[in-house]
Design a protein that fits this description.
There is one protein chain. This protein is an alpha/beta fold. The protein is 27% helix and 26% strand. It has a nine-stranded mixed beta sheet. A hairpin with a 4-residue loop joins β8 and β9.
């Protein structure tokens, strides 16, 4: 038996979608261990929001002005105090830019293992197990935790709906450790510039990666997107190269999208990219590498030359539209 502790993630006052995914994962793990599920909810003036975390048996709530914005150093102090006082069997953190600031430092301070990029966590014979994607998702390692540990779960690995449960969890306000003397502080939130296209609202996206080859080949993706009535987006390397603006980037360091159709052209499927698009209704992948991780999440896949297939698809879409 043992307690499973989920670390809730907030962004500008609201629980993020991945928080409910973690609750779904935590509930399954707690049941497998025959234990309970608790959630650490850190914030300020959001007591009324903790009821949304009904999938947990207990909400451990920390309220302080210093916790209103995410400052890794401050949040880490509070989480360390919570974990030391409760000694949970496993701590579940989102494998996001926020969670990555917490998972490894927390594990280091506690002297326990940290397993990142977890796609699945479960219990077997009283032990905690996890499947972790390594080498950009090309390999999956199965890890057994012989004792307590921190698990960073990739967004999209569990259905958020399963963790969005109405309930009346016990709410326990936890005592705060000293928060003065920290070396970092929140200054302000910088809003991104207005985008020419909001890819989070597009129903059809043609996504391009390094497999597209040269910058001038973007025109093939733009032609297909125009024929389909959608927009072009990209993986991080193309944005880093300046081929497309930041507001077109999909992934952990970009935007999360859920279109009706996501056509991934020349994208290998690293975990950071999959985090931003794996919940699309229909995923079609084109890649020359039959072992590319993108095929693990795609509903349909084509192994072949990206440029030839994009051109052929555009011609076929135009032909069918002309036929009415």
């Amino acid at each position: 038996m043992g307690e499973v502790l989920v670390v809730a993630e907030r962004f500008r006052g609201d629980w993020t979608e991945v928080t409910f995914e973690l609750l779904a994962a935590g509930r399954q793990l707690a049941q497998g261990l025959g234990g309970t599920l608790s959630v650490a909810a850190l914030g300020h003036g959001t007591t009324d929001q903790v009821r949304a975390l009904g999938a947990a048996d207990r909400v451990l709530y920390a309220d302080a002005p210093e916790l209103e914005a995410f400052v890794p150093e401050v949040h880490l102090r509070v989480l360390e105090a919570v974990v030391r006082s409760r000694q949970p069997r496993a701590v579940l953190v989102a494998n996001t830019s926020t969670g990555m600031d917490l998972a490894a430092p927390l594990a280091a301070r506690l002297g326990v293992p940290c397993v990142a990029y977890c796609r699945r966590v479960w219990a077997e014979d009283g032990q905690v197990l996890a499947q972790s994607q390594v080498y950009g998702g090309k390999l999956v390692a199965e890890v057994v935790l012989e004792g307590p540990g921190v698990l960073a779960v990739v967004a999209g690995s569990y259905p958020a709906e399963a963790g969005r449960v109405s309930g009346s969890p016990a709410v326990e306000e936890i005592p705060l450790p000293p928060l003065e003397g920290t070396r970092t502080r929140f200054v302000r939130f910088v809003e991104p510039e207005a985008a020419d296209v909001d890819i989070t609202r597009e129903e059809i996206l043609v996504a391009v990666g390094r497999g597209i080859g040269d910058r001038e080949n973007l025109g093939l993706a733009e032609e297909l997107a125009a024929a389909l009535g959608g927009a072009v987006c990209a993986s991080r390397p193309l944005v880093d190269n300046g081929w497309l603006p930041k507001n077109r980037q999909v992934g952990k360091s970009g935007l999360t999208v859920k279109p009706k159709l996501y056509l991934a052209a020349g994208i290998s499927g690293a975990p950071e990219h999959l985090e931003g698009m794996r919940n699309a209704e229909l995923i079609v992948a084109i890649n020359t590498d039959p072992k590319a991780p993108i095929f693990d999440v795609a509903h349909y896949g084509v192994v072949g030359d990206v440029l030839e297939i994009l051109s052929a698809l555009t011609e076929e879409v135009r032909r069918r539209k002309a036929q009415g």
